[in-house]
Amino acid sequence: MTGRDVSPPLTPSSGPDETLARAWDALAHVDDPELRLDLVSLGLVYDVRDEEGTVVIEMTMTTPGCPAAEVLPEIARDEVAAALGDRPVEVRVVWDPPWDLSRIDPAAATRLGLRSR
């Protein structure tokens, strides 16, 4: 996880777009412990949405046997919850579609020494 500026808590007047944007921003500050790049740049976050007042995050891992599979979703949930205040947050790990290298942001791919597409 990287350090970040802490945004003020959301107020009841904060709209859903702002809430989801802050959730995405928080996820962009959570690093995969092995690759040392954030979840968003790696393409591990598939969706962030509101479901009846709960922010639901669908994310995946690079492989089903990923050593961080148990802790990374928990870190992501905690980071988003801290950014949103009292808002409930749920992280769902999904395996479909499977993650592959094409999901990596070009700048992140360069940092990993991969050719950009």
Structure notes:
The structure is a single chain. With 117 residues, the protein is α+β, with helices and mostly antiparallel strands. It has one domain: Fe-S cluster assembly (FSCA) (GMP Synthetase, Chain A, domain 3). The chain has three helices and three strands. A three-stranded mixed beta sheet has the order 1-2-3, with helices on one face. Helix 2 links the parallel strand 2 and strand 3 (89-93). Helix 1 packs across helix 2 (71-84). Mean pLDDT is 86; it is low at 1-14.
List keywords for this structure.
117 residues; GMP Synthetase, Chain A, domain 3; 3 helices; disordered N terminus
Summarize the helices and strands and which ones pair or pack:
Elements: H1 16-27, E1 45-51, E2 54-59, H2 71-84, E3 89-93, H3 106-111
Parallel strand pairs: 2-3
Antiparallel strand pairs: 1-2
